[in-house]
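Input chain follows. Return structure tokens only.
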Amino acid sequence: MSRFVSHCTVQIALFAVCCLLPAVALAGESRWSGVDESVIEKIAQQHGRETREPLINTDQGDLLLFVFLLAGAVGGFVAGYYWRALTEKRDKTTITIPGKNGTAV
């Protein structure tokens, strides 16, 4: 029993270290720059254009969450609608190809 407890303690300690180590390592950095700042703004400045606010700013409010919710709902509806086609096993031995007169060849 004590061997199991010590084994679990070691696993919990390793899990905690793995979770905390990246957070501690990144705490020293001031801020991560996103793709907008590191790539798009740099290329825009190289070509003599000024940066501007995006047409649809997803950083404000819950617009991005709403878009993900909408996409999940649509994807779920499509998957549910075609569920039988996705999961049904088809018999591959009988393939009927309609002929010119509507008869099977």
